[in-house]
Amino acid sequence: MRLRTWIWLACAAIVVTWTGLRFTTQPPIETDLLALLPATERNSLAEEAAAQLGRLAGERAIFLIGLPTPEAARAAAADFAAAIDGPPFHRIVTIVPQPDSTALIALYEPHRTGLLPEPLSATPDLAADLSDLLEARLASPFGGGALPLADDPFGLFDAWLSTLPFLQSRLHIDDGWLSVRDASTSWVLISAELGASAFDPLVQITLTRVLEIAEDTVSSGWPEARILRAGAVFHAMNARANAEREIRLIGGGSLFAIVILLILVYRSPGPLALGLLSVGIGVSAGALATVSLFGSIHLMTLVFGASLIGEAIDYSIQYFSARLGAAADWDPGAGLKAITPALSIALATSVVGYSALALTAFPAMQQIAVFAISGLAAAWLTVVIVLPALLRKPQSAVPGRLLDLPGRLLQAWRRHGSLRVIMVSAILLVLAAAPGWWQLQTDDDIRQLITSDPSLAAQEQQLRTLTGFEPSSQFFLVTGEDEEELLQREEALTRALAAQRIDLQAVSRFVPSCHGQRESHARVKAISTSLHDTLLSVGFRESSADAWVSRQSMAPPCLTVTQWLASPVSTPFRHLWLDGADRHPASLALPTGYADVALLATAIEGLSGVTLVDKPGAVSSLFGEYRRLAGYAIAGATTLILLLLVGRYGVRGAVTILLPPVLAQAVTLGVLGYAGTVINLFNVLALLLVLGVGINYAIFMYESTAGSLLRESAALTGIMLSATTTLLSFGLLSLSSMPALAGFGSTLTLGIAVAVLLAPSALVMADR
Amino acid sequence: MTPYRIVIAISLCACALLAGAAQAQVATPADPLSDLSTRLESTHTIHVGFRQTKHLAALRQPLQSEGRIVFVRGEGVLWIVSKPYQASYALAGDAVTETGPDGRRRMREAHEAPALANIGRVFESIFSGKLDQLDTYFDVRVHGTPANWQLDLTPREAISPFLESIRASGGTFVERININESRGDLTEIEFSAPTLDAPLSDEDTHLLRQR
């Protein structure tokens, strides 16, 4: 007994110390929203591509500096750029990286006779169009193209270069800066790349400081300057700040309430200290288990973890209540023996409830499950092992008044409650709730996970409007047996989307398929005689026209992706090509501008080797699938818990205990329906816990029967205390800025409140 | 688009000289262009005639055209060809409007015709006396006196492998610009009868502001 206590306390000391150190020095806290999301793509390549794009976007921050005049905006932007140059940024870009013309000419010139710009490759009368181009070129006062007139009289090479999708936005280069103007303001764009992950806490801390300095610099020189920012890192910083605030609120609020209630009820420092000890060990163990299993702990898990305080204290409270109820007869060993079954069943039902969370594919939910199960188990062990050893003396002064209210409540239940009354009430409750069930609406949108800061969202919206960048969260994954097939499939995709007026950023826009290059070459070659005449008619020398025709007749070598990748021209677009030595080539194709997902999906019907990757859509539909699955999980968990209860209490006892939480679920669902709440996976998972946690009160109630009124009153006091702390914790959780957690918290609060109110029915039915 | 830098560069230095503000890069005490730039600094509009001759190696005969150029500070540039065909190019704001010899009008947004649009912006910024870009693309040298000066621009790398040099000359105003390209292609532009701050005709206003 002694030894066991010391061993557990030593283990607990190690766990608490480890967790304390780990979380004060370098908290392994994950803020990446993507880390919350399950793998959705059957195709591992698509998953990899989505991750790659996410990383790319995550590492970039964009700033727009706005002032009334372009000069001031540029000067302010220069100061801002200088101020943020350095960690955490490893590169500050004030101009969109555009390859110089020598690189473009070096890459494309040798292959130019096979390159025909998109609009011309489909024109019905190429000869006429080319002759128009020649006339326009000769007439234009601005003359020169990339190549001398003799080499490229029709300006085909220029036209090819100008269709390359380099800069497709409203931005223009003004005095070396990317600029855009609206009615009253000139904006200058600065793009910055982070040297590390946007979710690295160190990066976020450094960035906050650097930005403060940079903003001070700008506003001291230009008080009216406006600075817009966009980037995943700001959302991550925001999420971290919110979560930290919420952890303080929920954790602090719960602890404060526990301290006050324990002091009020038990009036001695022992229960308070031991209660806090069990909670501390529980929360530390939860954090340790989660970090050991997942490598880090997500902010969402921590916020939830803070709300676990209210539940972890329940086991201690049961012990204190037993002590209170026994008064002077208190014997720690016997007392523990009396409550152990109840505590064990309560732990088991919670474990069943939380285990169902672990079965979902959501890392976030799995973390919450691991955190809760290990935390509750540690709290339970502390109560069972440590409390009887350290809290041996009976409760010194039993405050009579304290037990008055629970005593009166019990008598009232006994007087008015009968099996019939309870059954009729249950049926009435179900009937009242039922119409609400049919008003339930569901929405499985992924945004439930995201805390959206209105100011940040407004800045991003303004930035999108100004620049014309409309980042799409969908993309295409294109695969082929070889490079040629891949490029041809991309071209088919480009054509299919062009029919829907959707533009595409893809490798084949820079490197047409060899087939396409040969076809382009053949098209011009086929009309070279007539073009020769055209050249002569506008005044070309015979020799120049001949030279052009003979160059045009030679089949050019095909430009390849390898050549493109080796050229600096491809630098800004290299992410489109997926490297992979041991597999078939694959590439990404990004629709530019806003496009309806359904439209994208229909556009690619019948195209082979093209997959539409819609990560938000896939996650949302997975949410929906799991929401439905969670419904079955509730049925499964109920059956499992029923079997567990039948083992100890018999069929009648089991039904008696199950009735309150099951009714609570029914009522909660009804209330959610009446309230017009749009429910999702998280509400359903919360309902599952209403069963796993809400059942505890019925168990405690049932176990406390067949004793003195004092004992029963003490038990009810404990239950009310437990319920208060649990409800407070989950109630605070419902204030979370994360919609998913808020919904989770409010559903739990509502359900558990109903479960607690109905718990005394167990007492009445147990009497029979 | 980068290949158009040559075009931009050419237009840029033409404008630089017309606006006479090239001293930004060659700020020596005896700057032959300082008179010119001071005079034009606060000018709102400039009308100037031009005659352009392109000697192109591929062509039997040089191409000649005549017309006039109108700069309007803060609005844009009009390049109006009157001989041997009628055409106009209006570069204003975020759009380029081309009226071809056949009378067909073609309006393009900046991002559809980046080359022309860039010229428009560059023209405007040059005309406003901001020439920092010239130095980015060219090595700039000035000789002579305010009454008879000569400006040589040698392109730095990465503008165009085919542009060799640009030479401008003039006195109280810019008189001539020669653009040398490889393979013997040469463009000569002569300017005549500059008028400062003359009112904008209705027709020009229409051309510049048409949308």
UniProtKB/TrEMBL annotation, chain A:
GO terms for cellular component: plasma membrane. The keyword Magnesium does not apply. Keywords: Membrane, Transmembrane, Transmembrane helix. InterPro entries: Mycobact_MmpL. The keyword Transport does not apply. The chain crosses the membrane at residues 247-265, 272-291, 338-362, 368-391, 418-438, 629-647, 654-675, 681-702, 714-735, 741-766. This is Membrane transport protein MMPL domain-containing protein. It comes from Azoarcus taiwanensis.
UniProtKB/TrEMBL annotation, chain B:
The keyword Signal applies. InterPro entries: LolA/LolB/LppX, OM_lipoprot_carrier_LolA-like. Residues 1-24 form the signal peptide. It holds the Pfam family LolA_3. Coiled coil: none annotated. Keywords: Signal. This is Outer membrane lipoprotein carrier protein LolA.
